[in-house]
Amino acid sequence: MKPATQPRILDAAEKLFARHGFESTSLRAIIASAGVNLAAIHYHFRGKEGLIRAVIERRFAPINDERLRRLEVCERRADGRSPTVEEILEAFLSPMLRVGLPHSGQGRLLMQLAGRLLQPSGGMLEKAAGSEFERVAIRFLAALHRALPDLPKQEIAWRINFTIGAAARALSGGIPVKVLSSASHENLQERDVQRVLQRLIAYTAAGMKAPPANQRP
Amino acid sequence: MKPATQPRILDAAEKLFARHGFESTSLRAIIASAGVNLAAIHYHFRGKEGLIRAVIERRFAPINDERLRRLEVCERRADGRSPTVEEILEAFLSPMLRVGLPHSGQGRLLMQLAGRLLQPSGGMLEKAAGSEFERVAIRFLAALHRALPDLPKQEIAWRINFTIGAAARALSGGIPVKVLSSASHENLQERDVQRVLQRLIAYTAAGMKAPPANQRP
DNA sequence: GTCTATATGGGGATAGAC
DNA sequence: GTCTATCCCCATATAGAC
Asked: What's the pTM value of the predicted model, to 2 decimals?
């Protein structure tokens, strides 16, 4: 028996989106891969934008839940005191990087997809990703503000954005410069996620804890 | 007398690309704004991809020249010793963030454009941006390796990628999460670039200098 | 409720007249 | 160098079969 139409569409769309990006993937390519009719997409998802949103939400809702869950765990473990910046950042970054096992093709596809998702690229993607991120961002901003009471909240907000940018690089494998990609992009395909996560946390935690620059130069 | 067709196309395309992104901007929108014929784009630039590449190269070649020039200046000033990480990163980041004055509309447009450019988003952009970056990336990787001799070169390559990701966030204004964008996106439109640069350098320099994570967890 | 067939309008690209 | 006319592909919408 063959799987239902809806998940077949979602699986095919996720794979193609991850490989070619959202705007470069046509619905026709998706229906060919899924073996369904074009109008089925419109029926189930109300068009391409709805399909993108459904793909995103299917995968990122659990990630965001996991982020919040981990944050609560390490806050409870800290028992009244604030968790370390490293712990908070691991709660934020790890679920995204760890989805799927290192050897799972689906996991790596999702990492590429996530790398694309996190970057603003022209309108509708922001909306789809933004609503998912919002609840998470608020919680983590508060947690980091508590861990770094000397930093203005505005500075922390900036640094969260910098951190997201760094994570997006890690997920998408970096720029296609040979000298850099030999050390990142290629390896990302083959090495384990844990190593990348360690590098990313070492970098972003140090940046997060940096003394703020002089505001009057 | 009216300007030549070619720069008119480039100006209109840059403006629209900056505003709506590359894939969401139609050639027809560009010709309407530039007041030229559709085929003129294909004649001068061999299609949309060539136009994107031309827009990119026109703006980024001088930026990359400036990066290399600044790196040489601070290396000469260091007189045999290595410049600080902060100096190297400022040479790398500042030309990109400083193009145009804070109040120049063109400068801000370019910042948005650059923010989009630096993030991998589906194929052809990487190629266009990658060739531009290559010569710069090699030089800065070497300079940072000299400034941070204890770090493996591979680790530095990863951190350069993280740094680029953070810079891309600064340029594009961050994710559209209200609580974060109130502190970044909105202000980026109105406040001076110097402030952003200071924040970015404080964050990325700390990340760059962080002790590497344990490789055996 | 689920899907097929088909129509519409907009997109990038190209050949060839001027 | 420039423009007109045209081609083919795509996303979307809808009517109606099952």
From this structure: 0.86
